[in-house]
Structures are given as structure tokens and as C-alpha cells.
Amino acid sequence: MFQKTYKADSIEEIPGIAAEIHDMSVYRSASCKVLLAWAQLWEEESFLAFRQEISDRFSDFTVIGSNSHSRDDILKNIMDGSGDEMGCLLTFLFFENSSVSLYGIKTGYREEDREGRELKDLILNTKDPKGVFLVPPDYVSSMEDVLAELKDVKDIPVFGIKTSLHQGYKCFGYEPGKEVIEGRLLAMIFHGESLEIRARYNLGWTPVGKIMTVTKEENPFFVDEIDGKEASFVYNRYLGLRNDQIVPQNLSEFPLIIERDGIRVSRIGITGPKEGQLIFGAPVYLNDRIRLSYGNPDDLFMEVTEDTNDIAAFEAQAGFLIVCVNRVMLLKEREYEEIELYRKKLKEVAAVYGFGELFYHNGKGGELNSALVSVSMKETGIAAHAGETEETEQAGQTEDTALSDTVLVPFHDRLSRMFKEMSGDLIMAVKEAEEANRAKSVFYSAVSHEIRTPLNSILGMNEMILKECGDENILKYSGNIKSAGKLLLQLINDILDTGKIEAGKMEIVPVEYNAKDMMDELAEMISYSAKEKGLEFVYAVNGELPAVLYGDEKRIRQCILNLLSNAVKYTPSGKVIFAVNASVTDKDHARLKIRVSDSGIGIKPEDIEKLSNPFERVDNSKNYKVEGTGLGLNIVNRLLALMDSKLEIRSVYGQGSQFSFEIGQEIPQDTEADGRAGNSQSSAGNEWGDLKAETASILVVDDTDMNLQLVRILLKDSRIDIDTALNGPAALELAAKKKYDIIFLDLRMPGMNGIEVFQKLKEDHDGININTPVVLLTANEGEDVRQKYIEEGFTDYMSKPFTPVMLENMIRKHLPEGKTSGSGL
Ligand code: ADP
Questions:
Q1: Is the CB of 630 under 6 A from ligand 1?
Q2: Span 29-36, average pLDDT
Q3: I need a labelling partner for 533 at 20 to 30 A (CA). Which of 141, 317, 573, 661 fits?
Q4: Euclidean distance between CA atoms 1 and 68, whole angstroms
Q5: Residue 601, ligand 1, Cβ within 6 A
Q6: pLDDT at 505 over 80
Q7: Cβ(55)–Cβ(123) under 8 Å?
Q8: pTM for this predicted structure
Q9: What letters, b where the CB count within 10 A reaches 16 and e where it falls short, cover 212-234?
Q10: Which sign, positive or negative, has the C-alpha torsion 462, 554, 636, 439?
């Protein structure tokens, strides 16, 4: 293929250009002839004359034209404001056996999806499409939604330009012998088997400083808030600009950059009609993560140099550049150098300047700003037109760099270099800290999980010693193992909770529960430890407490228990008060006020705010003897925040403390007499072991032998017939031969997991265990995941590690009537 580019100062020069073109041999031999005709800054009347002249002289070309900034002379115009640099740029492309098709897609307000679908159909219905050039009819149409429809179009670059902001701006196009299209989205599809098109998006600006989030907007062009503050604060604070100073000239070095799918798109916002609002020329979406950036000519050139070297290696035969006016504002006279870099590789390359660049390839890209999109083409197997390329350097011959080699480096370059390096250091430091923190959380939670399983076995077996042993001394040791073990288990659970909260995985799971029972149980539990320490314990429930509430019973219980245990722990003498005040706010809602006060050691005012930090224990001189981790209050604070509540702390050092919170709960309507949720896994006391079911038989499947042994030990007195299996195949073999009353199935097992075993079991429709209840044993799954298992057909689930009480209750719940005896807990 062959390219020829002309610049003209007036319409009068066009006939001469036409004569020259018509004289060329390639004019006669070409399979397809294309003209890109850009007029610069012409008023409407002269633009129409230009259009007429083009269609008169080049009626056998496929043409796209518009009124835009098309000449490098624009620089002068922009820099000295003279505004009289008018002219035009004509780029002729001659294909030897490829072709183009031109379409005009009708545009309309909020019809971008339909426009995109039409464009997609046009591309897919074209044989061998290789690239698409888009010119929207006006500056305001949002092209991102149009482009988004092309996300499944593979390997076909789409590039385009939004041109002038000037009144009277028009774009037009036509195919040889056909009507002129105007006022539509022009789409020129390049196609042909031997055609190759390469398009690349260059930016060169580097993001600096912290990432901010778009938090409120009127629509994607009018942004109200960034990081919860008036949007204009980004320029007020970081560039020191007043709202009336937020104009493009002050922002060109510092566009905002949004990272989308690994592509950086740049945006410049100017002051909007509402106070603090910013208006953008291309979409900025809610939750977009945005950063200020800075531009340094050397960095821009570095990126572009890489591009030009690639173009040379590609052996391009023709090309054009779609360049943002903002680059001119930043680079000023050096903009010539940028275009020269391309000319050195591709002599006839044409640069056209716009106010928005389009680039979309394999689902990535969008409307850009501050960018330079380069498009280069070649027809393979066909030599470039002889005699026209000798001035062009050979492919990949030199590695150009446009870095200026003068000794004095401009102040601006030095300043931005300093910014870049300094913020690079900070970003690296933050990244390292974040990674270390993440690694720490992952490590804690992995280790805690590993410890929890054997620890539970230890506690379970110790429970047997306490139950069966008659030796006083051994019972004492065993009692110590129990209390130390419980503390360790608490610590591990706290670490797991903290990890979950930090990873944003802590879920609030509301269930129906009996609030009075819950408070009574907590009071009873704590009254023992208070009594052991010789403290007076006062418990009072006042107001109107509905029988059944709907909320996260487990987490509320956890918060109150923590406060109560602390009160007992940090009170050497005197009393602990647990007061609940309830009120019904309307027929569906109640409010609980929980207050825990003590006459203990108290907390210094300066220490109170430290208490929400994890692992923070204050006043170590006084409480060094008290066992604790410093995690409890941190978890309480974060759990309460998840439930829209907040811990209030009042304390007088040396005299006592009061911890309180208020929490809203729903009142469920039409609740049954016992509103307790089926799966409530509370364990009030530790008594267990009165389950008797000698005719029952269960199968327990778990890959950890110790867990199987534990179940056997815990259920020893129940006389239940227990079979165990260490893996799925062994379990299925047992289940094929013997009818069980319940099957307990571990979820995570190597080889065949619990779900697969369950499915196999249910596949055998005539199997003797087809109707047997199957209880899934899960580790740390979230509530939604567990619910999914129930939907899949599991009868129930039970969290590991389970307590003896949980196990007994689960068996009671699912054993057929008549097979059990014992009170139940
Ligand atoms: P832990 O009790 O495991 O150390 P917490 O997070 O529950 O951790 O409490 C953090 C710190 O707050 C405690 O170490 C203690 O210094 C202080 N604290 C908590 N509750 C009380 C209280 N009722 N009276 C005095 N100090 C308390």
C-alpha cells in the first residue's frame, strides 16, 4: 500500500493536489482509495466549501473528513492565541488488494447500546475485518457505552477521534458514487486478507499520590464527590487551585488517571455548575479509582519512542496519529519533536489533533484523554511503492531517543522527576507494608486453623478424664488443662475473627432468638466466675423485651460476654453490674441498651482511645497478672460497627469502668412459641453425656483419625453403634451394606470430598441409605456457602470443631423418634 500526505493553507491549493494525485500510477492501479480530510478551524461556510471541493475532486475515493485541529501549526495558535492558523491536512491511502467500507450509524440520546450493537454487527458481517476507524458526530456523545458492546470482538483494533469543540463543526464521509453521510457516527472498516493493522495507545503520564474513589455523581460526566469530599478538592488541595482556577490550562500537566482493566485512562475535570462539582468530557464512573498524575516530556517521549521502534519493526507502509490537544499544552514547541519521531519511521504519517481519543482492543480501552493513538498499516507480500520511501529509515535501524542532550534540564522536568521518585518510594513502602500485613493475617489464620483441630481433640479427651477419673490429683491437673485449653481456644478464635474482619469476610447472620434466655444464660455463666473471685454480681433486665428478636445472636452474645469477662477480670474486689434495658420502638423494631459496669481498676483517659487497636493492652503495670490478648475489645468494636452500633466507654482510673452499647433488633412477626433458630449452636453449660440410644447406628467420615476417635470417645456412654471411615470410597462401601440413622460427612477430604461422596450416595436410588439424614461437617465456611449445601440436599451442617453438647444435640435432632432417651440440652 502507499500513502501520501499534503498540507494546504487554503481551498485554492486543493485542485493542484488533485492533479498530482491523479497523475500517480498507484491512483490507477489501487484496489481501493481512501482520503482522510481534516480541515482546521474553518468557519462553517468555508468548511462547506472545503467539503464541496473535496467531493468534486475526489469523488472516486472513500472519504472521512471533519473540522478539527489538523496541522502542527496549531501549536502556534494554542501557544500565542493568534487563532488564525487555518489550513487542512489531506492523507491519501492507496490499497493494492484490500478495501474499506464506510457506514453512518444513526445516533441518539441514550441509544449508545443500540449503536454499539449495530457497529458490532457491521464488523462481524465484514469479511476479514482488520481495524475500525470511528469519528463521532459531535463532541458530547458518550462513546464508552458504544465501545463496551464490542468487548467480544477479538483482535480487531478500534481507534477514533472526537474532534473540534467549535461551533459549526461537522464530520462527513462518503463512498465513491454514494451520498454524503453527515451527522452520524462514521465507522470506516478496513478489511482484506493481506492487510495488517497495528494500533497502540500511548500516554506517558505517571500516576502519583494516593488512590481516591469517586463516591457521588449526578451522571458519569458530572462528578459531585471524590473520597466523600467535594470533587474539586483534588485540585484545591494538591494543586492549590481555587474553583475558578480549575481550567484546562492549569491542569494539562496533571490529568486524573483511572485504572481500568490494567489500562490507564486519563481525564481532565473542570469546574461544574454546582459548588465543588467537576465536569468531565468523557465518562468517570461511580467507584472509579482515580489518581492525580504528572507529565514529564521525557517520559512521554520515552513511551512514544518505543512505539515508533515497534512501528519500524512492523514495517508499516502507512499510518496516522490521533493526538490529544492536551499533549500540545504540556509539550509546547516540543510537540513537533513527538511527531518528528514518527515521521522518521514513516515519512507520510499524518497527525490529527482532537479533544478525545478512542482506542479499544480486545475488550480494553475506552475514551481517552492526553493520549496519542498511533495506527499503522501494511499489506503483506506487497512491497512499498518504489521511489517514495527512500528517505524513511530502515526498520529498527536506530534506537531513537528524543531526550534533549543540553546540559540544563528545565525546571519543570526536574520538579516532576522529583515528584515521581519521591512518590514512587512512598508507594513502594505502602505496598510492602500492605503485603506484610496481608501475609501476617494469612499466616495467623492458617496457623490458628491447624491448631484448633488438635486442640479440640485434647479438650475432648480431657473431658473424658474429668468424667471418668476418680483420682483427685489427676482431676486437678485435668481441670488446669481444661482452663488453659479454653483460654487458648478463645485466643485462637479471636485471631480467626480478627483475620476474618480484616479480610472483610465477617458476616452478620441474623436468626430468630430468645433475647431473655440469652441474657439469662450469660448472667448465669458470669455469676460463677464472679462468685469464684468473691465479687458481687448484679443482673437486671428492665423495660419491654419482646420474647423473640431477629438479629445476630451469636455476635451479640460474643460482644456482651467479652465485656462481662473483662469486668470480672479487671475487678479485684467490689461488684460487677450487668444491666439490660429494652424498649419497643415500633411494632417491628426493638432497641437493646446493654451496660456492663464494674468497680475495678479503671482505665486512664489517655488509654481509652487506644483500646480499639488490636493487641493493645493498657496499664500493664496493673494487669500484667491478668490473662488476656488485647484482641477482645477490638473485635467487639468491629462487630458492633458491622451491626450499626458503637461501644461507649466511661472510666475513672482506680475506681471502675462502664462499657455500654445500644443495638436495634427486628421483631419477627408470627413467630412460633420457640423462636430459636434451628441451627443455634449455643452451649450454655458443659454438662453432656446423658444421651442414650443403643439401637441407633451412625457413620462418621473424616480424613483425620483423631476426629473419629474423639467422636467415639464422646459418644461412648450413649451406646450408639458407630462406624467410621477415613475416606469417601470406604464410606460408600460401608453405606452400601448397612443402614445408618445418621451419616456425618466431612467436607474437606483428599481424593473424594464430602460433596462428591454425598452425590454418589444419592445417585444410588435403591441404596439402603438413600433417605438417611446426612450432616455436613464444615470448617470455616460463611453462612451463604452453608446455605448452598442445604439447598444441595444435605440435611444439616455442623461447624468443626464441635463441642460434645453440639454433637449430642445434632444426633437428637436427626435420630428417628423412639431411638433416643436423655434430657437433651
Ligand atoms: P484482654 O482483656 O484480652 O487483654 P481486651 O481487648 O478485652 O483484651 O481489652 C483490652 C485492654 O483493655 C485490657 O488489656 C485492659 O487493659 C483494658 N480493659 C478492658 N476491660 C476493662 C475493664 N473492665 N476495666 C479495666 N480495664 C479494662
A1: yes
A2: 95
A3: 661
A4: 26
A5: yes
A6: no
A7: no
A8: 0.54
A9: bebeebeebbbbbbbeebbbbbb
A10: positive
